[in-house]
């Protein structure tokens, strides 16, 4: 299949060749921009949108999706399934049994559909809202592959998956190939899957190539140098005081839902002036810990302290000034409509640091409508607008998702600029991307299904650290 995609007669994608044949598994990686996302949508038959579709308020946002597709060779797949990076956009019901039951009737039972990604039968009784992000992605993937489409298009799904989830994904890809179906994966984190692909292609921003050098080097020299600069901001041992302390914390999203997620008797301490990497299987509570620190959720039992202060006694303003949080999907945190509006807002709040950071990255003469920002730009905007001179804790949830190598270098250098201003900051990175936190020299903590944290040492494996400090 070869196609060109134009907007106002200007090629956005030029002679894109996707070597999909029966039983193919193709990976696309490289520059992560709007054109990159377009490729998956075009193959899945989502774009271009019909020219007669008029949504005035969204016209600028959807403009790029209303171009002209020139199919130069081959045909689009006859039936497709598309799954993007945010599983919540693909789950429409409140309960798992409703979600699985709403799919087109196939031979598999609901239990068999869940089993594709090792989700137990008890999940049928769960509410979608009680699932972790990784569990939602597993559910969405199980439903997607159960539809047996000629071509399954996946974009940005891997960062959601733990090791078992990746094994399930690989098994379903192999099953699809054995049945003569195709899988197209658009992804940055390809290390665990690239050796199984028929082709791995690199996107340079407008066209594709199969440059081995470009594909093999994810963390190139510039990213490694940037990570070393960030590491240099932290003393070898860090401070002795605690930035965060959990004391016998119990938490459950739904007290009546006994099969759902829970943290039980979780105790740990994080010290000042350190970088921590928080890893763990899907559903163990990594993002929940962030929500508890931000007091977006409250524990059923136990206490949480921020720099020695009981979290429950702190005002919302104190928490937001001391804790800077950037989610995996920063667009969910953004409430204004342009970067310029954020400048005005920061000016009213006398947010000198935020304004300086915004001006260091965004041209002061441009408005930058948020609908046109890339993932990297949204992460930088959220980071800049959420930090202050009083910030002591920075929490980054899956920071590498949706960012290519150049973008990762930019994000690291932007983080370094912030660290130069803060006093004994503690960085907490929630991720499945172990290679990234290892690059930063982070203290790596694993959260397991029993609500215990374990500190990782490569030579010793994981040793239980619950109740202790790291």
Helix content class? 25-40%
Q: How far apart are the termini?
A: 53 Å
Multimeric status of the protein: single chain
Whole-number tally of structural domains: 2
The top-level CATH class of the largest domain is: Alpha Beta
Number of strands: 20
Shape: globular
CATH topology annotation of the largest domain: Rossmann fold
Task: Extract low-pLDDT stretches.
Answer: 459-469
Supply the number of helical segments: 15
Task: Give a description of the structure.
By secondary structure, the chain is an alpha/beta fold. Residues 459-469 have low confidence and may be disordered. It is built from 15 helices and 20 strands. Helix 11 packs antiparallel against helix 12, helix 12 (352-361) runs antiparallel to helix 13 and helix 13 (375-386) runs parallel beside helix 14 (405-419). The strands form four sheets. The chain has a seven-stranded mixed beta sheet with strand order 15-16-17-12-18-19-20. It has a six-stranded mixed beta sheet with strand order 5-6-7-3-8-9, with helices on both faces. The chain has two domains: 2-216, 3-Layer(aba) Sandwich (Rossmann fold), CATH 3.40.50; 223-464, P-loop containing nucleotide triphosphate hydrolases (Rossmann fold). It starts with a strand and ends in a 6-residue tail after the last strand.
């Amino acid at each position: 299949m070869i196609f060109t995609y134009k907007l106002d007669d200007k090629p956005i994608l030029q002679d894109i060749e996707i070597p999909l044949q029966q039983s193919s598994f193709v990976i696309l990686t490289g520059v992560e921009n709007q054109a990159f996302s377009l490729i998956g949508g075009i193959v899945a038959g989502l774009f271009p949108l019909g020219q007669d579709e008029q949504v005035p308020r969204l016209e600028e946002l959807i403009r790029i999706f209303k171009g002209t597709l020139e199919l130069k060779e081959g045909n689009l797949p006859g039936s497709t399934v598309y799954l993007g990076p945010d599983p919540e956009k693909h789950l429409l019901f409140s309960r798992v049994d409703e979600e699985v039951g709403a799919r087109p009737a196939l031979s598999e039972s609901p239990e068999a559909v869940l089993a594709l990604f090792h989700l137990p039968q008890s999940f049928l009784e769960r509410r979608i809202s009680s699932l972790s992000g990784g569990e939602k992605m597993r559910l969405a993937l199980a439903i997607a592959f159960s539809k047996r489409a000629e071509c399954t298009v996946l974009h940005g799904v891997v960062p959601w998956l733990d090791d078992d989830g990746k094994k399930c994904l690989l098994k379903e890809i192999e099953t699809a190939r054995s049945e003569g179906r195709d899988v197209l994966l658009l992804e940055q984190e390809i290390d665990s899957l690239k050796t199984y692909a028929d082709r791995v292609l690199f996107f340079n921003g407008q066209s594709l190539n199969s440059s081995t050098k470009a594909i093999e080097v994810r963390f190139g020299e510039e990213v490694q140098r940037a990570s070393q600069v960030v590491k240099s901001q932290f003393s070898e041992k860090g401070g002795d005081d605690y930035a965060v302390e959990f004391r016998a914390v119990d938490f459950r999203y739904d007290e009546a839902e006994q099969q759902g997620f829970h943290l039980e008797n979780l105790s740990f301490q994080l010290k000042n002036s350190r970088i921590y990497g928080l890893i763990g299987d899907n559903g163990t509570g990594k993002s929940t810990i962030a929500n508890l620190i931000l007091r977006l959720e409250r524990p059923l039992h136990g206490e949480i302290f921020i720099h020695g202060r009981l979290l429950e006694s702190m005002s919302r303003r104190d928490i937001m000034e001391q804790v800077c949080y950037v989610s995996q999907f920063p667009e969910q945190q953004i409430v204004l409509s342009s970067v310029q509006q954020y400048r005005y807002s920061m000016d009213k709040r006398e947010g000198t640091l935020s304004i300086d950071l915004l001006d260091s990255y965004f041209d002061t003469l441009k408005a930058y409508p948020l609908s046109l920002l890339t993932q990297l730009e949204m992460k930088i905007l959220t980071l800049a607008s959420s930090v202050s001179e009083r910030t002591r804790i920075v929490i980054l949830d899956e920071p590498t998702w949706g960012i290519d190598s150049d973008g990762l270098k930019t994000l690291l250098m932007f983080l370094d600029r912030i660290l130069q201003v803060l006093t004994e900051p503690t960085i907490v990175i929630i991720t499945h991307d172990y290679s990234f936190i290892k690059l930063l020299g982070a203290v790596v903590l694993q959260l397991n299904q029993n609500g215990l944290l374990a500190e990782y040492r490569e030579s010793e494996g994981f040793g239980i650290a619950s109740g202790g400090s790291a």
